[in-house]
Amino acid sequence: MPAELAVMAGLPKRIQKETERLQAEPAPGISAVPHDNNPRHFNVIINGPNESPYSGGIFKLELFLPEDYPMGPPKVRFLTRIYHPNIDRLGRICLDILKDKWSPALQIRTVLLSIQALLSAPNPDDPLNNEAADRWKKDEQQAIQTAKTWTATYARE
Questions:
Q1: Residue 106 catalytic?
Q2: Distance separating alpha carbons of residues 96 and 156, to the nearest angstrom
Q3: What is the arrangement of strands in the sheet containing 30-34, beginning at the earlier edge strand?
Q4: In the UniProt entry, which residues are flagged as the active site (predicted)?
């Protein structure tokens, strides 16, 4: 048995199936690859959505499935710096399905698509980065320009 299959064999069937689906049918603009040595830890890349200030950006994230997954949500954070009202300077993400709105019916794929959607629709009324949220509310065009500048600076390969 190849090493990666042996490591996968120790995982719950649900995680094995989700991982296989992510590899076989990746969501558009999203890549999630499990680490060789820890299949609960994923390297994620989300392409900035078109028509957003993050367009053209390549954002690296890490996703970890805790022992209580799927009863508890995955842990996800941005590794690439990003200017966004719902993402703080440590890369933590303010997204309801990662907290109190989590449901075991959700999957890794759903979480990543929701994060990608958050890039298209920042919500300054539920901020994690107060400075960005204030800028978004007071001068949205300036906030969008800052987000574009940060994308060009930090999210290009």
A1: no
A2: 28
A3: 30-34, 41-47, 58-64, 75-78
A4: 94
Catalytic residue among 76, 94, 98, 112: 94
Query: Domains along the chain?
Result: 3-154 (3.10.110.10)
Spell out the per-residue pLDDT of the chain, length 157, in tens: 344 444 566 789 999 999 999 999 999 999 999 998 999 999 999 999 999 999 999 999 999 999 999 999 999 999 999 999 999 999 999 999 999 999 999 999 999 999 999 999 999 999 999 999 999 999 999 999 999 999 999 999 7
Strand partners, 42: 34, 63
The span from the CA of 132 to the CA of 88, in Å, is 9
